[in-house]
Task: structure prediction
Amino acid sequence: MPSIPLLQFREMFHIGGMQGPPAGRNDSLEGNMLSVSRCPCAWQRIAKCRGPLWRLLKPDALFVDYFAVARDESLGALVKEWGVSVGLMTLEGEGRRAGRPVAMPTDALRERFRTDRALSPKTTFSLVVAAWAEDVAPELGASVDGVYWREVYDPAGHSAPRGGILPSRLGRWRREPVPEWDGGPTLAGGAMLSDDALLGRRPARRTVEFDPSVLEAGLSTPGVRR
Result:
């Protein structure tokens, strides 16, 4: 029986404004989701982010583990089938890898996430996973807040773990500004805000099992395994 792989966090960080999703188009990897991370110092360096630092708190926050979905062939196939069925992506034969078609974005996907970014097959599937997390996962018993990408921590190589909070879930989070942060590992007064310390707090793993036949029936009988 397939299961939804989840990661549970207590806090995330965001650099910039907190006025909600941008009204216009964007070129963010997370589309119109709120870009968050557990390593703000790295992302300040990678993306040259400007603006204040916010700490977002939610004790039971659940994020779909993107790379776990991508590695699970059966779950990945279900998500892709759904993405094609609702018009968010197509599967194209050109550029096949190991004989498999690749995910290509549709205008509907670009419009949903308000993005003008050139979407690679990986980013296309990432956004389809986010849409699936918002639309389908709750019907299967997983009320998720967003998607998390456990990228390699390598700021010099422009890579670090990151997440996206779905716009419809943002109101569930408590937010507080981090005062006098300048992009470094320390705050005024010597308090530490270290990427190593934050990433060292490993998230709890959760799974929600579901019967794939319920996707067609429109019903769910999920069981949560902890």
About this structure: Strands lie at 3-15, 34-36, 53-65, 89-97, 100-105, 146-149, 162-165, 174-178, 204-209, 223-225. The helical segments are 40-47, 66-71, 73-85, 107-112, 121-135, 195-200, 213-217. The chain has a mean pLDDT of 84.
